[in-house]
Amino acid sequence: MFDAFTKSAARNIFYGGSLVFLVIFGGLTAHSHYYMVTKSTASAPLTEAVARGKRVWERNACIDCHTILGEGAYFAPELGNVFIRYGGDKDPAGARETIKSWMQAQPTGVPGRRQMPQFNLTDRELDDLAAFLEWTAKIDTQGWPPNVSG
Amino acid sequence: MKYQTQRVALAYFAVALALFAIQVTAGLLAGWIYVVPDTLSVLLPFNIVRMLHTNALIVWLLLGFFGAAYYLIPEESETEIYSTRLAYLQLVILVVGTLGAVVGYLFRIHEGREFLEQPLWVKLGIVVAALIFLFNVTVTVLKGRKTAITNVLLLGLWGIAVFFLFALYNPDNLGVDKLYWWYVVHIWVEGVWELVMAAILAFLMLKMTGVDREVIEKWLYAIVALSLFTGLLGTGHHYYWIGAPGYWQWVGSIFSSLEILPFFAMVLFTFAMVWKRRREHPNNAALLWSLGCAVLAFFGGGIWGFMHTLHGVNYYTHGTQVTAAHGHLAFFGAYVCLNLAIITYAMPHLLGRAPYNQVLNMISFWIMAGAMSFMTFTLTFAGVVQVHLQRVLGQGFMEVQDQLALFYQMRFGSGVAVVIGAILFLYSVLVPRRAEVIGRGPEAPAASPAE
Fold first, then answer.
1. Cβ–Cβ of A32/B179 closer than 8 Å?
2. H-helix or E-strand containing A68?
3. Where are the transmembrane segments (chain B) (predicted)?
4. Domain A48-137 belongs to what architecture?
């Protein structure tokens, strides 16, 4: 098998090339980090409430049923754009209220349907969660998802 | 077993297999919840079941890697493991952390980033265990013979630990969070884990085919070069829609399309080595798992990955059952098969006996491989229908899910078959018997004695 290509040549290509690609990747990530903080997520302020809302999101492992920006489990609807789906682009206060009352109404108890648990969130936690979902819906995601269904 | 300390691997493999059983059980339950959705919805909601399924998978695969490292490093380095005490201490930390996490999940004690749900104390325990492990194996390698297999294996294992550190960084900005979350998730499974995979496959080929080390190690470096050259920038295929710049659509599409190359190279490598083999190794089951690993990783990781990696396609398929289909066959092919291959190879040596229960073991391969393929097909069909109804026609998520019921029923059926295959596998490696279910034909003359 191609004798000119020796083991030490292969090894040197591996170590040298990997290092080059690692540096390029690191550089592009650093730029992306900067771009996210200053551009794509900068249209809405990342308030204390948004940060607390993200912790509520995590504490209840929402991502192990739902997706957010397409990542997570695929058992329950996409929530990256739920704020828009609930009409938040036209009536933000209404969408926030809809998110809160949805959470409070669970589980539906309809037999044979997927059930969302009742997480017993406080009013403040619900407000924070709604703020987080509102902030997330304003991220510039290069036009994804294709439509409001998520 | 040439070195006494290789025995450490036995404990690692045993714990790994126990978690494998938990993983497929949780998977079966999750598959059932898709069919009868209100099952256990209060006692054990879907998110907890899924957490058990994915976390048990990740931990058992890692335990398998650690076991494989403890098994093969003494043979490669031609020296005993530096400290078996440290190796067992590491295992105890991992077992306590894992049991703590599993029991905690049942009581809703967890963090909430996908796959990284482990509480902070478990994450820190993993870091400590990884440090102990890396110290132990690195010192062992440094005092013994250095080979390409140990070089690549160690680099992969160090990479696993270094990139896991990003799991400890959880910024408030969801976009930035995702940017570095993929440093753990993608760079593990489509980067450094591939180094571990290629190194273990190279070891198995070296032992079972008897081809020259020089040839095998050249292949190894070529494969892992392809892995990192494509896999690092291939991370870009996760940066399309999370708020990252638009250039990732091109970088990600081009490099992640090329991620098929290392998997194809592994197919060529394993089949070429078997073709050029200089001995007939008695452990045919281990050889079957090794070849199956390369082939199924190529289809699951390579083909199914490519299917939805171009940004124009991914725009429609991102976050649908298409992703789930790819995830299942990729993990099974690349990493489950790899672990079952090294376990099938090592167990007879660890127990000091000739290969046993090979027929049952090989039947379990075909059941699991067939069932996982079937599961992948059903999820792919479900995904295609979902993409059309939801992403093209714009129907609501739950409305679409109702129309996928048939696919989920078929998926559950394949899940039952996977569990049957897993039970057969566990029986075949854990309960050694004297005679095979079917006797062998006369031995072919071997060119040189097997080891």
1. yes
2. strand A67-68
3. 12-35, 55-74, 86-108, 120-142, 149-169, 181-206, 218-241, 247-274, 286-307, 327-347, 359-385, 405-430
4. Orthogonal Bundle (1.10)
